[in-house]
Amino acid sequence: MTFRFADIVLPLAVGGRFTYAIPEELSGNVVPGVRVLVQFGKKNLYTGIVFNKHNDQPSLHNIRAILRVLDPSPLISETQLRFWQWMSDYYMCTPGEVLKAALPSALSPEGKIDEKVSERYRPKQETMIRLSSGYTDEAMNSILDKLSRAPARNKLLSAYLHMTGYSEGSEPEPVSRSMLLKESGSSPAVLDALVKSGILSSFSREVDRMERSDTPAEPLKRLSESQSVAFNSINSQLKGKNIVLLHGVTSSGKTEIYIHLIEEQLKNGKQVLYLLPEIALTTQIIIRLKKHFGSVTGVYHSRFSVQERAEIWKRVAEGDKVNGYRLILGVRSSLFLPFTNLGLIIVDEEHDGSYKQHDPAPRYHARDSAIVLAGLTGAGIILGSASPSIESYHNAVSGKYGLTELKERYGRVNLPVIVLADTREAYRKKLMVSHFTPQLLEAMDEALARNEQIMLFQNRRGFSPYIECTECGWKPVCYQCAVNLTWHKSAGRLVCHYCGHTAPVPLHCDSCASTSIATRGFGTEKIEDEIKIVFPHAKVGRLDFDTTRSRYSFDRIIRAFEERRVDILTGTQMISKGLDFENLTVVGILNADNMLNFPDFRAYERSFQMMEQVSGRAGRRRKQGKVIIQTSDPSNRIIRMLVQHDYQAMYRMQSEERKSFNYPPFSRMIRINLRHKERPALNHYSGILGKDLRSFFGNRVLGPEFPIISRIQLWYIKTILLKIEKERSSAKARQYVAEAVARLEKEKGAAGLRISVDVDPY
Fold first, then answer.
1. The CATH number, out of the four listed (3.40.1440.60, 3.40.50.1100, 3.40.190.10, 3.40.50.300), of the domain defined by the range 5-112
2. For 198, which of 207, 220, 275, 306 is 20 to 30 Å away at the CA?
3. Cβ(419)–Cβ(642) below 8 Å
4. Per-residue model confidence as pLDDT tens digits over 114-126
5. C-alpha to C-alpha distances, 364 to 33, 355, 757, nearest whole angstrom
6. pTM, two decimal places
7. Residue burial 614-649, b: 16+ Cβ < 10 Å; e: rest
């Protein structure tokens, strides 16, 4: 059958798909999943994805035609299109927003109708050099003799022969131009002269942008008895359920189990996706996986250039068992890669909040989306964590997921000893040295004396969270956001962590003109400074957002710590996840109260997870580690559970509280954010939406209320929260919310209102 029309998804935040006519000459090439170039609006050209074909005549008078087909075969599979459609429906965003998040921009050319729009992706070309033909030994010796009067050319040609191991009658081997010049120490002019004389020839060939590992694969390590039991349990449970939660204490050897599971899948010709919550975690794991799986291992995250991301995308899409990537290690955006034969998804540190995308849309959760993708592809999925999310553990103990537990560390190394240091008592007795308790200082002294390493965790970057006038209490705030400015000493500026605005440090108070300006609180930068004073002979490093802005800075800092060129590493949550250091024995958590007292229903759960993860970095080899938790409330229930490493007690406590107050996992949540430049207008429109929603949802509606940070980048913000019981239809709830938002947007004067909907906003 010949189809006349195609529905196209365009990378725009506009609802629905758009129908275009299929020109007769393109009818055989327009199939679901290919990229096409189309006109949208009066002058703009966009790359869209063909979603489907049909013969339903649209009601419009003029139907624009597809201008060009960009792919000889589908770039996006039918399964991917179904996955994108699910994500659009569930997370209440447009198909175009999903497309924009999924497809690398280099594969999505756009422009104006009066411009030539061409592919942005360009394969990397490298100039190669080789002998113009095969020479006999006699002929080659003759050439070298003639070049004896031109020593620079003789040297370069000799270097080429040495590099390639050229022998009589063999096929001339090409070498890269840059490598030949480097090895020979010659100038480009010398090489060009040899090419011009016809002795050497040059040509271009396509090469990989991504570094490939050519080292032979290391054999897999033998699993311990407990690891073998867990491995067999996972394989057995995956046959009945496609989701298994692996709950293993820190340093129990979960990664080694993953490696054995990956090996099985690759042997069966399948692809594997290994998800990590942050780019920071990939460094050590990449090295470890490439040792076993070599060049089939690819990495995908936002630090790569658009060209590199497009290249990885194409290599995954090829499904080539020799040259394609069959094991992908990446962050949440890796879910969108065009897998052709996915067999297994591993979601490591599944509890981590970084798996949730907050802005822009689609506001998806990578763990939950991975579960859907696994269902669509028939792949198995393993969720791994030392402190699983309450939702995942609830699903496991209720039988929805399989459950495997590792309760001892690899090699039977003991879990770290956790010591509570009462900061309130230490301040009262004047025993604090800067922000350090006597217990922490003593543990650090002992570790340094034994040439062991230390890690200090403070989940706040900068030097000081704010500065304050000691006379009247005035604080510098961001003129765009309702938040105090943070002092960054190294930059010599006050910085807003929400919009990036910076300001000079004031010399006097803007309110009372006093010069008594003091810092309040402390961040990682201040800890680094003060550690250098307390331990002047120790080598100190810092790992946070400020020190890891460049592409390789994280790797550089981690390598320095691994090689023991840093004795004390201070950092934010970046240091808490998945890192493995043999010589690290002491971990200090400097301000546990900061996390515990955050006004969020997940504060206790996330505090436990964060501190358990940080604690797990200590003593991962032969020596038992020590963790010092500084808190003004040592009797806090969560901290007491942490001391005992008692995850089950934390789970039971949190489950009871959440069931009582109807929070996840016993309900679903939808948060609606409303923004307006004028506060009265925001109050007016948010009130209308709140009333509309209450007419349908009743007391399930909370708000509208101003959040903690009530203004960002000059936009005032109000939120409405819905809590929908699990037994109620989530689809109907989302449908009514969408209709209510659409009605509000039609209200008179609502053009200045910005509304975003976040499903599962936690």
1. 3.40.1440.60
2. 207
3. no
4. 888 888 888 888 8
5. 22, 8, 11
6. 0.88
7. bbbbbbbbebebbbbbbbebbebebbebbbebebeb
